[in-house]
Amino acid sequence: MVKIIGNIKPEDDYTHPLGPESNFNESVYFNFFDRSNNRGGFIRMGNRANEGYAEMTVIIFNSDGTAFFNYKKPEIDNNDGWDAGGAKVEIIVPGEEIRTTYEGSALFMEDPRDMKDPGKAFKSNPFRKIKLDLTHYGVGPLYGHVGEEGDGNDFARAHTEQHMRVAGTLSVEGEAGVMQINGHGLRDHSWGPRYWQSTPSYRWITGNFSDDLGMVLTVSSRGAGGLFHKGEELVRIKDLQLATEYEDGTSFHKKLTADITLEDGDQHQLVGEVKGFIPLRNRRSEQVTYIGEGMTEYTLDGTQVGYGLSEYLNQPGDDI
């Protein structure tokens, strides 16, 4: 049985009753990284049934710096599951085993930074068919919280996360054979009202080094924190100092260094180098949120190497 931390339960892996809020969103996110193939990415689905659509994003970073990307808003009218736009999420064993699939087209970009102008990117890059079939196995505790209705949280009223081991296959049009995917990742599940514009700018840094070691770091204008997953235990971060290097003249992060002190007194230094990067944005009315996604290689304490995703979200005029 999976270890549970927080006021959640394994059954929370399933969808929940659709709330009355017009912006009620139930989203699931799974990132994955295979170090042997130097390939990784994520798939995300967010049901906005009261608005009549789902948000579906798939990204695959390739070893040569190229990337596959697609974003769709397929029509939905219920919150019974995640199955739209060619993507599907199947809960096999709550808290322990989940299958994610995507079959359809994806934009192939030799330079993923083209996505800083989405209209131009979709017109100037070709599409290729891809088929992704992954199974995610829980290797760490399932942790999270369920907040109260009307608590004013319009980003993640209820939220769970878990470190995962990942196995599956990837097929790409024009590539011979089927690639086996074996690695690690993190999953995230939230439900309740959500506007991307309602959260402050943040840095969300996730990574795995083995079945028994992973981390999540968060830094925002509200403070810094996170935790380390060590075996069956989660150890909170007491102090976190983050320094970031950016590509010249941009907000695109390319390297990060984090000095970390845990509540148990352990100290760590994490160095991350971005191996694949794509800039995204979310627009609602006149408000635009910028999100930089980086496939990142981490070195922990100068010895242990792992992989994960570093996400830098920026709201205009909101400095960390």
Describe the structure.
The strands form two sheets. The chain has an eight-stranded antiparallel barrel with strand order 2-3-4-5-8-9-11-12. It has an eight-stranded antiparallel β-barrel with strand order 13-14-15-16-17-18-19-20. A hairpin with a 2-residue loop joins strand 18 (267-284) and strand 19. 2% of the residues lie in helices and 62% in strands. The protein has one helix at 118-124; strands spanning 4-5, 24-34, 39-48, 53-61, 67-72, 82-84, 87-93, 97-109, 127-138, 142-146, 158-172, 179-193, 202-210, 213-220, 223-230, 233-246, 253-262, 267-284, 287-300, 304-314. The radius of gyration is 18 Å and the shape is globular. The model has no long low-confidence stretch (mean pLDDT 93). The chain contains one helix and 20 strands. It has 320 residues and is mainly beta. It has one domain (4-314).
Helices and strands in order:
Blueprint: E1 4-5, E2 24-34, E3 39-48, E4 53-61, E5 67-72, E6 82-84, E7 87-93, E8 97-109, H1 118-124, E9 127-138, E10 142-146, E11 158-172, E12 179-193, E13 202-210, E14 213-220, E15 223-230, E16 233-246, E17 253-262, E18 267-284, E19 287-300, E20 304-314
Parallel strand pairs: 1-10
Antiparallel strand pairs: 2-3, 2-12, 3-4, 4-5, 5-8, 6-7, 7-8, 8-9, 9-11, 10-11, 11-12, 13-14, 13-20, 14-15, 15-16, 16-17, 17-18, 18-19, 19-20
